[in-house]
Design a protein that fits this description.
The chain has 421 residues and is an alpha/beta fold. It has 2 domains: 38-291, no CATH class; 300-419. It contains 18 helices and 7 strands. The strands form 2 sheets. Strands 2-1-5-7-6 form a 5-stranded mixed beta sheet, sandwiched between helices. A two-stranded antiparallel sheet has the order 3-4. Helix 7 (117-133) packs parallel to helix 9 (153-176), helix 11 (211-232) packs antiparallel against helix 12 (246-264) and helix 12 (246-264) runs antiparallel to helix 13. The longest helix has 28 residues, at 39-66. The protein is elongated, with a radius of gyration of 25 Å. The two termini are 42 Å apart.
Length: 421
């Protein structure tokens, strides 16, 4: 998406992914500015830098709330949290959103202290930027509502209303594209246990921690995720990365607890240091795993290499289902020389993510002229799409072709089919 021309990108955003439009534009500008640089480096660099900036902002925020030791521990704790490490590596907007949310939280505390129009405008502008990068950042307003003292609530409410009003057009447009999140399932046990693992210790420790930290950190860790979970009881929308910024609240709570325990001295100090060391050691295998292809749903590099090998002597390529065309879009060189047998209009020309495919009758005629096909499929055991086009693909392959071999790579199967004699 980011490599499309601005008119093509605008055309696509009218139909899909409006929620990521600003991120695509920023990445497009980055690609143009550093043309010729490895696109994977450019894609991931903003997330890496944003995570580092977030750790620094948390240090400033923790220092303002409870002192320099709490601030330093907050930045360090944030950096070792597994979800943070994961999305620091990915070419997505969530790390950027996290940085902007933490910055807005710092500006909120500052605005409450100095109470000037300019301070509130700065807070609102940064928060709006976070929401435009991903609209679920607006849920942080619930946490900020709890954190704001009574005497500043009127000024905060005006700012919050301005943010929501400015975000409304994007929200309306993205609601029209809600079919894109139909893949999200109901709340799983893992999500509920992870949420409880933050809520229970956080609430238990709250009475013993500095009130300024608790007033901001606990709502930040709990409310955005909790509200999205409540909404998901009606319409499934909860995905942990949508509220990644809640990890900042968790880091603040951890830092405040460690600061208090280490100041206590004696056995408590020793226990706190041992617990922190044990946690870091326990997280090492997770940290290592997060830096391997096995930590993701698929390995596009391995898939591309397998397709390149399987494609020697083939007439074309077929994607089952059509959305798996995305595996080839990142590096078109892996399918060079292979005709995309089902493609009708390219993603850019059709204003879609994956392109549009030909009618079943056209697809049937194309497949009948092919002799050797590379078929890129989901892993075994995945549910089969029941759309007419997907049914036709599977039927013709079964009737007229024979599977010559299949290579399984992480997240995909690459098969070669030859026409039956």
């Amino acid at each position: 998406m980011a490599q499309r021309r601005p008119p093509d990108l605008a055309h696509a955003l009218e139909q899909v992914d409006a929620v990521h439009g600003l991120y695509y534009l920023l990445t497009h500008a980055l690609f143009r500015l550093f043309e010729g640089t490895d696109p994977l480096v450019l894609l991931r660099l903003p997330a890496v830098l944003a995570t580092a900036v977030t750790a620094g902002l948390l240090t400033l925020l923790g220092t303002r709330l409870a002192g320099p030791r709490t601030g330093l521990l907050a930045g360090l704790a944030f950096a070792v949290l597994p979800p943070v490490q994961r999305y620091a590596q990915e070419g997505r907007s969530y790390a950027l959103v996290c940085a902007l949310v933490v910055w807005s939280s710092y500006l909120l505390i500052r605005a409450v202290d100095i109470r000037t129009t300019r301070a509130w405008a700065g807070y609102g502008a940064v928060l709006l930027a976070a929401c435009l990068l991903h609209e679920f950042a607006v849920l942080v307003l619930a946490a900020h509502a709890v954190a704001v003292p009574r005497e500043a609530r009127r000024a905060w409410a005006r700012t919050a209303c301005a943010v929501v009003g400015a975000l409304a057009p994007l929200a309306v447009l993205s609601m029209r594209q809600s079919a894109q999140v139909a893949w999200i399932g109901g709340l799983g046990t893992g999500a509920l246990l992870g949420f409880a693992a933050v809520v229970v210790p956080g609430c238990a420790a709250a009475p013993f921690l500095p009130k300024p930290v608790v007033r901001l950190a606990l709502p930040l860790a709990v409310l955005p995720a909790g509200l999205l979970m409540l909404v998901s009881l009606v319409k499934p929308l909860y995905v942990d990365r949508y509220v990644l910024y809640g990890q900042a609240g968790t880091a603040l709570l951890i830092s405040a607890a460690l600061d208090r325990l280490t100041r206590a001295g004696g056995a408590r100090r020793a226990a706190a240091l041992l617990a922190a060391a044990a946690a870091i050691v326990a997280l090492l295998p997770v940290t290592v795993h997060l830096r391997t292809p096995g930590s993701r749903l698929d390995d596009v590099t391995a898939i591309g290499a397998a397709v390149r090998t399987a494609g020697e002597g083939a007439d074309g390529i077929l994607y089952l289902p059509a959305r798996r065309r995305v595996w080839s879009l990142a590096d078109p060189g892996t399918v060079r020389g292979l005709r995309d047998l089902a493609l009708e209009r390219t993603p850019a020309a059709s204003g879609t993510l994956y392109g549009t495919e030909a009618d079943p009758s056209v697809l049937r005629a194309r497949l009948r002229t092919a002799h050797r096909i590379v078929v890129l499929r989901d892993p075994a055991g995945q549910p089969l799409d029941t759309t007419p086009g997907e049914v036709v693909k599977r039927r013709i392959l079964a009737e007229r072709f024979e599977e010559c071999g299949t290579r399984t790579v992480h997240g995909a199967r690459v098969s070669v089919y030859a026409r039956r004699c």
